[in-house]
Amino acid sequence: MIPIVSIVGKSDSGKTTLIERLIPEIKRRGYRVASVKHDTHGFEIDREGKDSFRHKKAGAAISLISSPEKVAVIADVDRDLNLSELRDRFVSNVDLIISEGYYRDSQPKIEVFRKEAHGEPLCTENDHLIAFASDAPLDRGVPCFGLDEIERIADFIEERFLKK
Q1: Which residues pair with 100 in a beta bridge?
Q2: DSSP reduced 3-state for 138
Q3: What is the mean pLDDT of each run of 10 residues along the chain (164 residues)?
Q4: Alpha-carbon distance 22 to 151, whole Å?
Q5: What is the DSSP code (8-state) at residue 25?
Q6: Which of 110, 77, 123, 147 is nearest to 4 (CA)?
């Protein structure tokens, strides 16, 4: 089963930036990484008038857009799928999934925390928290890495989830 690590934190904490720096480091070590971004507001990947948009509008439950460089899947769902369901339905051929968001999901989480901006962390020990990436030291019973300690965070993920 492909392991999942969620990068969580309050708005403007630096989640996307951490992921942008973490993925190349994990990839450099020889692992294939998938990413999942949670958008609670909904989104449109397709545009009106495009053929794939017209296919979905005509009633296709699943529509794929394929080119020599990439593939996108647009599928109807009846509810917000959790990370395990997304992994099981749509992700294969990778060693790790890194998600952004999914604070309420039961997957292991690394919280990005900035003391001056947010006051208190988002997660507690009941939230499957495994580490912090922070601009201030935190003693909450899990490792706390500096925001720029990308190699150490990758070491932690590799040791815990990728080395078999």
Answers
A1: 7, 37
A2: coil
A3: 95 94 97 88 71 82 84 86 92 95 92 91 88 95 96 98 88
A4: 8
A5: H
A6: 110
Residue 130's pLDDT is what?
96
HSE at residue 68, side-chain half, CA atoms within 13 A, is 0
The residues near 65 (Cβ < 8 Å, ≥ 6 apart) are: 46, 52, 71, 72, 74
Cα–Cα distance for residue pair 64/71, rounded to 1 Å: 7
> Tell me, what amino acid is at 84?
S
Residue type, 113: F
> What's the count of helices (H) and strands (E) in the chain, helices before strands?
5, 8
Looking at residue 54, what is its pLDDT? 83
For the chain, list the domains and their CATH numbers.
4-40+80-162 (3.40.50.300), 42-77 (no CATH)
Q: What is the 3-state secondary structure (H, E, C) of 111-127?
A: EEECHHHHCCCCCCHHH
What is the C-alpha to C-alpha distance for residues 99 and 137, in angstroms, rounded to an integer? 24
Quote the CA–CA distance of 154 and 159 in Å, as a whole number: 8
**Dist. CA 75–CA 62, nearest whole Å:** 4
